[in-house]
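Sequence in, structure out. First:
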Amino acid sequence: MRHRDGVDRLSRPRAQRLALKKSLVRALFLYERIKTSPRKAKAASIEAERLITLAKRGDLHAKRLAFSFLNDHKLTKRLFDEIAPRFKETNGGYTRIIKLVSRKGDNAPMSLLELTKLSEKELPVRTPVSKAKEPAPAVEQAEALSAVKETAKKEGGFKENIKKMFKRGGKKE
């Protein structure tokens, strides 16, 4: 028998799973499209569709239920004032999941989760939090390098500064 097969556990305890879904849904409503794994996208999609359906109701109880999930007044207001009116004539299917190429580092499958009716203004794609920065274009790198060289020349250069730091005896500055 296939008992307890209804919930995708995402290899996390219940509290972590709920926190993950909340953060993904918040990012989806903020950026209107996010890049994540297919399993996480599916889990977040279910919660997002439920919240948009609540927002279409528009009553006070629905606002309180949505706020209890989102924990952000501005985002709840945006959900009810901007996102839900776009889907007034639509019954379900508020999000779509598009498969992308695998992630380069660990070859993990990736997906794009987005709202089916995007806003008119262009919003950036939200990617998972990463400390790695994209390499700057060659022009910006060259300008930054020349600025560093100029400051080094003004201050007497790197070697001169090192000599000042390790100078024995003499006056201390």
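Second:
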Amino acid sequence: MLAYILVLCAVAVRFLPHPWSFTPIVAALLFFGARGPRKHWWAPLVLLAVADVILTKFNYAYIITWDQFVTWGWYAAVLWLGTRLGRQPKMLYVIVSALASSVSFFLISNFTTWAAWTDMYPRTWAGLMTCYAAGIPFFRRALEGDLVFTVAAFAAPLAIQAVSHAMENTGDHGAAA
């Protein structure tokens, strides 16, 4: 259930102001991959793709180009990466997965922006490097958000379990007294 809630939150945040790309998308995809049923992988992919189309067409008034399909493929890859974490992942693996997701999104999205939007940057090495340089401020905040939300998502079940266990123990002592 928590996996679905995280995906819905990630989609909702896309429609709210989120300064500098500080969003829970990576966390939701990694967590759904680790904890959600594989037969429902379509749910986060479809929800995020629909959100992208709505935002692109109606909020930003851009056209849908081939680079959007690359982003949707990246969503699927991060979801798959989450499956590699398993049900009880070590926090180090969770952090490394969040870092890998952030870095891969930065590299892929900036490259496809450079390649797809021919009027933004020259088709030269310098143009590509300019595109990457322009993305660095967004990358920093996206990386921070990815790490914070991913650690929180994977720590939440442990925290809930600990609180539940503590309440059970407290209840037993109260009943015995």
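Remark: DSSP finds six helices and no strands in the chain.
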